[in-house]
Structure formats: structure tokens, C-alpha cells
Amino acid sequence: xxxxxxxxxxxxxxxxxxxxxxxxxxxxxxxxxxxxxxxxxxxxxxxxxxxxxxxxxxxxxxxxxxxxxxxxxxxxxxxxxxxxxxxxxxxxxxxxxxxxxxxxxxxxxxxxxxxxxxxxxxxxxxxxxxxxxxxxxxxxxxxxxxxxxxxxxxxxxxxxxxxxxxxxxxxxxxxxxxxxxxxxxxxxxxxxxxxxxxxxxxxxxxxxxxxxxxxxxxxxxxxxxxxxxxxxxxxxxxxxxxxxxxxxxxxxxxxxxxxxxxxxxxxxxxxxxxxxxxxxxxxxxxxxxxxxxxxxxxxxxxxxxxxxxxxxxxxxxxxxxxxxxxxxxxxxxxxxxxxxxxxxxxxxxxxxxxxxxxxxxxxxxxxxxxxxxxxxxxxxxxxxxxxxxxxxxxxxxxxxxxxxxxxxxxxxxxxxxxxxxxxxxxxxxxxxxxxxxxxxxxxxxxxxxxxxxxx
Amino acid sequence: xxxxxxxxxxxxxxxxxxxxxxxxxxxxxxxxxxxxxxxxxxxxxxxx
Lengths: 455, 48
Ligand code: SF4
Ligand code: SF4
Ligand code: SF4
Hints:
heterodimer, A: alpha/beta, 12-stranded mixed beta sheet, 3-stranded antiparallel beta sheet, 17 helices, about 40% helix, globular, B: 1 helix
């Protein structure tokens, strides 16, 4: 399978199964348009030559010959035989934990999938006892895995900062004894950040996600306090300070865009103007609200991603480069194909734990009782559900198997599929279209960085 | 005259042989929490 597209003056052909990316000239691009199922032989068929008579026969032979050589080298219309690896996923240990240390929040963001911090249950904070059980559970279930991750999440995790500190200390002590390596991350809305917390986060957290939507009006409209006042003025100076003191360690300022700001490139520009150089802005997860993204919005959003791509290049040229999370792609290495075919690991390698000790497949399933996998206090754990999620990979989703983006997107978000398509096996169309557009932009950015345009 | 510039090699196929160690981070652990983009994760296999 190949995927070919034109964007920003490039003709690009991606060979899906090998991962090879080619910049091709117009003749090759048009030839590929006639060769949906691969090259029938060593010589260009006369029928195609007749059809593409705008080019000379010699030229067509030459271009066809080049495509043929790529096929022979396994770099075009190549076959993948990765299905054998899908079966190996069942036995994966659990190695990542999302710890919802606070089902409470000091903001009332309108689009929050945690339903304003309480996850459709009572507002609650995780106890030290439950937190320690979660760390023990992760160590126990991690088998031979050395790198373990724990993300402090919520609600707003800083509403339970004392616990965060204690659990980091607890896990660090276990590291020495078990030979495991813990990596901590945290997502925060920033309101409670102070010097002590900033220094702690910068020391202990390998990544920190700072929630802000962009321009003040955009941010404050969605991300208001309980009294409806906006959060922008309070968080921006704190985020700046945290990043200044971070010493180059990983972080992201992360925003959500909704139907109300489909011109989200302006928000990225604003965050860039504020001095941030690691930015993520993502579509809201929601249906049926006035701000929800609909299928009709897809063309406008795709055009906006192109604008954003232009801005990334502009910023590069002006000497103020930044990373946009969803445009990152490494064509030369990146994750192995086995990682790519199994997807996000939700419910298999990755689980979320609530203040009550309930275990869910991931943070976005929390509160959906039918998906609950167990509880740390009564030590229940449904390994049947774990198996179900382990079997959820690109080979179990017919639409993904046919999709050119499968080794980059890896079959999409299981939580979205469960919520909006009532099946883990059906991809959510809006996400798919946006994902594919982001990937095309990412490939073009990689091509621009690789150098000359002329083929 | 060349009609094609190839930016990389058969990186996916090459990755299958030494891959699958499972040490890299879960994708939602990185920044997004709302979508699955495995393609931009970092490999942590010490053997690679
Ligand atoms: S660490 Fe690298 S080789 Fe191991 S599973 Fe992840 S991407 Fe594959
Ligand atoms: S979820 Fe959508 S974009 Fe991703 S691989 Fe499946 S069909 Fe393609
Ligand atoms: S199901 Fe969706 S939200 Fe959950 S871990 Fe996977 S990609 Fe992330």
C-alpha cells in the first residue's frame, strides 16, 4: 500500500509497510496515480503511456524504471508481515500508571472529560494508603520491565500535592530495592503552582504538561474558575517561571481547541510569543455541545493545520523554532513497528487508578463503570478485560488495517471508539481525519528539513 | 535525471527485528491524554 499526496509544493509517496518516504516529480506522481495496485512488470504498460501522453515516452520509461527499482528494493508497494507480532501482546506486563490523585478541581473547564473534576462521582482525594498500593501494584505487575511510568493526574493533582510528594519518595525508595526506574509526569492547570512546587516538579518530573488554551479570551472563556473568572492571568507568570527554571527538561504547554476557536494557529502563535517552545493544541473530545467539533468542521481544521505548518516553518526561519507535539515525526527511527501496531497500550500496559482504588483501562474510561477492571483494596483485577484490550491492535480493526496511517496513529483512541462508536474496534471518524492531516503535515515538515525540494 | 528522492530507508521493516522490548513510554503519558499518536514516541531500547 502506498499513500501519495501533494502539499506545499511537494509530491510525496509514503510506502506504508516499509515506512519509506519518497519525494517524487510530477511524472512519477501521475504514474503512481495509474498504478494503484503496484507495478505490473519491468516495463511501463502501453496503456499508461497513452493515458499520460502529456509526457514523452522516453521520460515515462525512465521514471517508471526508477519506481520499479524502488519496488525491487522493498521501498515501494512493499508487503508487511507484522501480524505475527500482534499475538505477542497478550502477555505484556503493566508498566504505566495514571494516578488520579484528586477527583476534584479548582477550575470548571467547560469541556473537561472529567466533568469538572469529579469524574461523575463524588469529589475526593486519594489517600496515602491507596497511592502506595498503586505503586506496589505497578511494581508487581511490571514483570521484567525496567522503565515504569506514573503520571499524576486528576482533576487537578496539585490539590493533593502532599500525596504527590510522598508517593515520589515512596517510589524512589522502591527503585533502589527493585531495580526499577520510575519516571514521573504531571499535568496541571497551574493555579496552585508556587516556588516550592515548581522546584519539586522540575527536579522529579521527567515531563510536565501545563494546561492553557492560548489567547486570553479563548482560555478564559473555557477555563474559568468556580466564580467564572478566568485563569489566564494567574497561570501565565507561573508557567513562564516553571519553564525558565526547568533547565531544558521536557515540558508541554497544552491547549484544547473547540469549535469556538478553529483558528487555533493564533493560539499557538500566542503561546510561542509568550516564549514557550514546546506546544500541543488538541481537538476537544466532546459530542453534542455547541463547542463540539463536527464532521462538517473537518475541512476548515485541515486548512488550519496547513497554516500551522507554515507557522512552524516561519518560526524555524526566524530563529525561534518550537516543537508542535502532533507534528513530531522521526522518519529515520522512532518506535519499532511492534509498538506501532499495538497502539496506546490502554487497559493492557497502561491503566488508571482513582482515589477509591478503582482500576480503569485509562484516564478517559474513568467513571464508566462497565469498563472498570478491578480495585486495589479488594485486590480484584479482571485479566479477561486486560486480554480484550491486548487484542485491540490494528489487526483487530478492519478499517485501520486498510488505512495508510496505521503505523503512526496505531488504531486511534480506544476511549473515543468506546464512547462514540460503541465498539473498541471502530475508529472515530473525526479523529481519523484530523490525525491523517497532521501526519501529512508532519511528513512535509520532515521533507522541508531534509533539504532541497527539486526532484 | 532523477525522478525520486528517498528520504529514509525501510525503517519499519528494520525495526521489527530488534523491536518489541516494551520499555518505551505509553503514548498518552507524553503530552496529549486525548489521542493516540504512537508515531512520535521515542524508542528506549538500549540495544538499538
Ligand atoms: S522501546 Fe523501542 S524497541 Fe522497545 S517496544 Fe518501544 S519502540 Fe519498540
Ligand atoms: S484510527 Fe483511523 S486514522 Fe488511525 S489507523 Fe485507524 S482508521 Fe487510520
Ligand atoms: S484509549 Fe485514548 S485516552 Fe486512553 S490511553 Fe489510549 S489514546 Fe489515550
